[in-house]
Amino acid sequence: MVRFGLVLNRTSMVLVCIVPFMLTAVPFSLYYGSDDIPAILLAAGATLIASLTMYLLTWKGGEANHKEGILITTLGWILSAGFGALPFYFYGTFPTYTDCYFEAMSGFTTTGASVLADIEAQPAGILFWRSLTHWMGGMGIVVLSLAILPALGAGGMQLYKAEVPGPTTDKLVPRIRETSQRLYVVYSIISVAMVLMLLLGGMSLFDSLTHMFGAMGTGGFSPKNASVGYYKSVYVDLVISAFMFIAGANFSLHYFALARRDFKAYLTDEEFRFYSGVVGFFTLTIAVNLVVNNVYPNIVVGLRHALFSVVSIITTTGYATEDFEKWPTYGHYVLLLLMFVGGCAGSTGGAIKCVRVWMLLKIAANQVFRIVHPKAVRTIRYNGRIVPAEVLSGVQSMFVLYMTVFILASLALAWLGHDALTAISAIAATLGNVGPGLGTVGPVENYSHFSLTAKWICTFSMLVGRLEVYSVVVLFFPEFWRK
After folding, report:
1. pLDDT (tens digit, 9 = 90+) per residue, 293-348?
2. 397: Cβ–Cβ under 8 A, 6 or more apart, which residues?
3. pLDDT tens for each residue of 225-273
4. Are 160 and 146 in contact (CB under 8 A)?
5. What angle do CA 415, 416, 419 make, to 5 degrees?
6. Which residues pair with 385 in a beta bridge?
7. Would you give the DSSP letter of residue 300?
8. Chain Cα centroid distance, residue 437
9. Which of 2, 37, 137, 363 qualifies as a FRET site for 258, CA 20 to 30 Å off?
10. Which residues, 6+ apart, have CB-to-CB distance to 98 below 8 Å?
11. Which residue pairs from 417-420 have beta carbons closer than 8 angstroms and sit at least 24 positions apart in sequence?
C-alpha cells in the first residue's frame, strides 16, 4: 500500500532544496542591473511556502518502500520542473506556462532542448537559473536532496535506485547519504576545475559558470545564441570537449581516481573503454568524411569540430560549435545513432548508456556462439564478473521499453504533421536528453515552433528518459497501485 502522505512529505523535502539554488541567481541580476529580481524572489518564495505547507500537512514517520521511492522520485522531478518554471513565468520569459515548464523540465533533465528564441535578450538572473538547473539535475535532484537533508536518508536507497542511471546501483560507502555527498564532492571539484580553465581562456565568470553547468550536467544550455560557437576559440572548444567527456564517464571512476589515486580503474573498466573507443572511432571517421567532402580544409580542423560534436552528442550535452546539419549524411547518421547510445552509467549523461549497449552486444554474440555450439555453456562477464541473469533481463527489457516509448512518441509527432526526420530526431533528442536534433530542431533551431501538444509529448519524453523509463512507465500499470 502506498502511503501518499509520506510520499508528499518526502517530495516537499526535495522541493525545498531548490529554493537556495534559485536565490543564487540574484547576485548576478544585481551585478548586471537586470530587472528579473522580483520574479526570482517571488518564485523562490512561492516554492518555499508550497514546500513547507506540504511538509507540515503530511505524515512524517516511517521509511519509504520501493513503490513510494518510485513515486517520490517521479513526483519530485515533475514538481521541481513545475516550480522551477516559475522564474520564467513570473518574468514573462515565455508567452505560456507550457513553454516555461518545457524549458524547466529540459533544464532539470539536462536535455537542453529550448523554446527560447533570443537567448541573449534575456536578463542575467533568468539565464543563470536556466543553466543552473542543468547542474542540479545532472547528478539528480533527489541525490542532491539526499546529500543535503538527513531526513531523506530514511528509505534513501529506494530513492537512489529510482533515480541513478544504470543497470546496477553501486554505493561507494555503506550509507547512501554519504555516497550522495561523496559523489557531489567529486562533481563539485571537477566543476570548479572547469570554471578555472574557462576563466584562463578569457571567459567571464558568468559565461564560465553557465557553460560549466551545461557541460558538467551534460545539459547544453548556453547564454549565447550561437552556443559555444560564439567564442570561435580552439582553447574553449577543447576545454569544454574534455569536461563533457569527463561528465559522460562514470563518476565512481572519478571518485576512485581523486580519493584513492586509482587511475587504473579507467583502463580496466569495460564500459569506459567502450565509451572511449566509440568516441575515438567516430571522431576520426567523421573528421575524414568532412575533409574528403571539402567541408573543412584539413584534418586538424575536421578533428576539432568532429570531436566536439561527437562528445557533445554521445554525452547528451547538446552544445554546438558548428551547424552539423550542413555536414554530409554520414555525420547526420552517426550523430543520430549516438543520441541512442549516450554516456556511461553513473554519469550525468542520458540515453540508453554505453554499458547497456555493450551488454546487448555481448548477449547477441553469446546467442550466435550458442547457435554454432548448441551444447556449450558460456556465461556473460563484465569487468571479470559473471553478469546475473536478472541484470541481463533488465538490460533487454529496458531497451525494449525505451524503443517502444521512442516509436510511440515519434509516431505521435508524425501524426501532428512533423516530417519524419524531425519527428524521429526530436524524440531521440528529448528521450535521450540530448537537446538538438535534426530537421527543424537542429543545432541552430529550437522547439519554439512546436504546438502545445507536441511540446508536452517532448516534455514527457524528457522525464521518461531521465528516469530511465521504468520509474515513469510503471505508474501506468494497475498492478503498481494494488496492495
Report:
1. 999 999 999 999 999 999 999 999 999 999 999 999 999 999 999 999 999 988 99
2. none
3. 999 999 999 999 999 999 999 999 999 899 889 888 888 989 999 999 9
4. yes
5. 80
6. 382
7. H
8. 15
9. 137
10. 452, 455, 456
11. 418/450, 418/454
